[in-house]
């Protein structure tokens, strides 16, 4: 939780900075950006990527937690529990553990694919007009 707060604080400080940051050392001069975050900024500026993030994206457990946390009603803590404790790796695995889901999570699982679909912009404008009336 402390790391997450540090990252959010650094992101906020960098977003508010009036000019583009050209190095980790420059970023480190800002309040909220420490040595480790500055090193990560240097790596991103030099390579366009962050090795640790790329490795995490390919980790099957991270992918499973991401999938499960996209189910409406399942937060990151519950997603980790389903993946680590129950061995859930797919939506089919979640179906096998329906008895462990609350009402909201069951609905989120049932309509997962529908909720994942993007609503076309023109349809949104139509809905906006209906709501405004």
Descriptive account of the structure:
With 133 residues, the chain is an all-alpha fold. It is built from ten helices and no strands. The chain has helices at residues 2-16, 24-28, 35-47, 51-58, 60-69, 76-86, 91-96, 103-110, 112-116, 121-132. α5 (60-69) packs across α6 (76-86). The N and C termini lie far apart (44 Å). The mean pLDDT is 94.
Topology of this protein?
Layout: H1 2-16, H2 24-28, H3 35-47, H4 51-58, H5 60-69, H6 76-86, H7 91-96, H8 103-110, H9 112-116, H10 121-132
Helix pairs in contact: 5-6
Q: Residue share in helices?
A: 55-70%
Total helical elements: 10
SSE string: HHHHHHHHHH
* Sheet having the most strands: none
Class from secondary-structure proportions: mainly alpha
Structure, briefly:
The protein is mostly helical and 133 residues long.
Give structural attributes:
single chain; 133 residues
């Amino acid at each position: 939780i402390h790391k997450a707060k540090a990252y959010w604080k650094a992101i906020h400080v960098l977003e508010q900075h009036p000019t583009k940051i050209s190095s980790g050392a420059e970023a480190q001069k800002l309040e909220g950006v420490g040595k480790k975050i500055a090193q990560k900024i240097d790596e991103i500026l030099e390579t366009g990527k962050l090795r640790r993030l790329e490795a995490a994206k390919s980790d099957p457990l991270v992918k499973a937690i991401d999938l499960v946390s996209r189910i409406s009603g399942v937060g990151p803590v519950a997603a980790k529990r389903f993946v680590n404790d129950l061995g859930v790796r797919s939506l089919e695995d979640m179906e096998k553990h329906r008895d462990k889901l609350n009402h909201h999570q069951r609905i989120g699982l049932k309509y997962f694919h529908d909720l994942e679909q993007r609503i076309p912009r023109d349809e949104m404008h139509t809905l906006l007009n209906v709501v405004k009336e």
